[in-house]
Amino acid sequence: MEDHHGSSSAYLQLFMDEASLYNRIVLGSLLPMKLWDPLPHFIQSWVRNCIGGTLIYFLSASLWCFYIYYLNRNLYFPTDAIPSNKAMLLQIYVAMKAMPWYCALPTLSEYMVENGWTRCFSRISDVGWPAYFVYLAIYLVIVEFGIYWMHRELHDIKPLYKYLHATHHIYNKQNTLSPFAGLAFHPLDGILQAVPHVIALFLVPTHLTSHIALLFLEAIWTANIHDCIHAKAWPVMGAGYHTIHHTTYRHNYGHYTIWMDWMFGTLRDPQAQDDESKVM
Predict the structure, then answer these.
(1) Theoretical Cys-Cys bridge with 252: which of 1, 120, 218, 245, CB 3.0 to 4.6 Å?
(2) SS3 assignment, position 121
(3) Closest residue by Cα to residue 22 from 4, 44, 37
(4) What contacts 24+ positions apart, CB below 8 Å, involve 208-214?
(5) For the residues of 192-258, what is the DSSP string, one character each?
(6) For the segment 179-216, what is each residue's pLDDT rounded down to a tens digit?
(7) How far apart are CA 259 and CA 141, in angstroms?
(8) pLDDT tens for residues 14-71?
(9) Given the DSSP bridges, would you call strands 206-207 and 120-121 parallel, antiparallel or unpaired?
(10) 3-class DSSP state for residue 79?
(11) Who's near 159: CB < 8 A, 6+ residues apart?
(12) Do residues 244 and 270 touch, judged by C-beta distance below 8 A?
């Protein structure tokens, strides 16, 4: 009998088939078959992830930059607070150098899933919708906790900050931060902050498609939290909170929500900071 933890070869084949489908959709749409079909499955998946990650990065950041800097110019920022094209091009350069390395992580996680090393399941029907949402909630809590502490340690451990995280923190004010800064990290820094997504696969049953989607959602989310626009959507860790992180370096390490910063005493609210600035 097959179980949803992937102990049988027949069940593991479902993961292989899913990855092969994604490879055919992405690679088959953009490249001649003779260029990618002979490649090993692992390399096909990595190339697919590189293409997918790059497309998501450029589409999300470009569309958002067009909306806030040009279509609604001066609505969100004064002209002197809009980052220069030179600054954004530098952010793109840093992100593109790191992209092939970033994409090794989802490729590796797929490989581990396909070999039955994780607790992933292929079909939601294997566990049912109620269990799926419970597992997804636990997965997100693990990711939130892990990213918070990984990010915090990248600041607290001086060699990690100096040689890794400082690459991202050269963008530390409104006229240098932009949606393109969202993936402008040292490659190892970006991988370390995404590792909790993979660790969660060994701790809680996880739907593979949801895991892949959440990894690529990172590119969209990081573009959003670097636009310096405070949406006031409590308890979301939006750009208002993250801009404070880039200016104080000691607050708002969280990812999607404010809960971890609230629990561990590192939360600084944008509204409270604005009030303090007015008093001063």
Answers:
(1) 245
(2) strand
(3) 44
(4) 208/15, 208/18, 208/110, 208/113, 208/120, 208/121, 208/122, 209/18, 210/136, 210/139, 211/109, 211/120, 211/139, 212/22, 212/106, 212/110, 214/143
(5) HHHHHHHHHHHHS-EEHHHHHHHHHHHHHHHHHHTS------TTB--HHHHHHHHHHSSS---SSBS
(6) 999 999 999 999 999 999 999 999 999 999 999 999 88
(7) 10
(8) 999 999 999 999 999 998 999 999 999 999 999 999 999 999 999 999 999 999 888 8
(9) parallel
(10) helix
(11) none
(12) yes
Give the torsion sign (CA, 245, 251, 254, 259): negative
**3-class SS at 263?**
helix
Rounded to two decimals, the pTM is 0.90
- Give the span between the Cα atoms of 148 and 104, in whole angstroms: 22
User: What is the Cα–Cα distance from 61 to 8, expressed in whole angstroms?
Assistant: 42
Is residue 169 classed as helix, strand or coil in its secondary structure? coil
DSSP labels, 12-72? HHHHHHHHHHHHHHHHHHHS-HHHHTTS-HHHHHHHHHHHHHHHHHHHHHHHHHIIIIIIT
Phi-psi region of 8 (alpha: psi -120 to 50; beta: other; left: phi over 0): beta
- What span, in angstroms and rounded, lies between the C-alpha atoms of 145 and 195? 12
> At 30, which amino acid appears?
L
N-term to C-term CA, the chain: 69
* Whole-angstrom Cα Rg for the chain: 20
Residue 30 neighbours by CB distance under 10 Å: 13
Q: Which amino acid is at 226?
A: H
